[in-house]
Amino acid sequence: MDEIIVFQQAGSGDVKVNGIRQYGRDLIISRIFDLPGCLPDFIDDPAAYFQEDFSGDLVISFLSHPDLLDYLALLCRQKNIPLIASGKKNGSAITPFTCCSLGRLPGLGRYGEQFGVPEYEVDVRENVITAIRVKRGASCGASWEVIPRLVGLPTAEALACIAREVQYLCAADPSNFDPITGKSALHVAGKVHAAALEKALSG
Question: Which of 131, 146, 169, 170 has the fewest CB atoms nearer than 10 Å to its CB?
Answer without folding.
Answer: 131
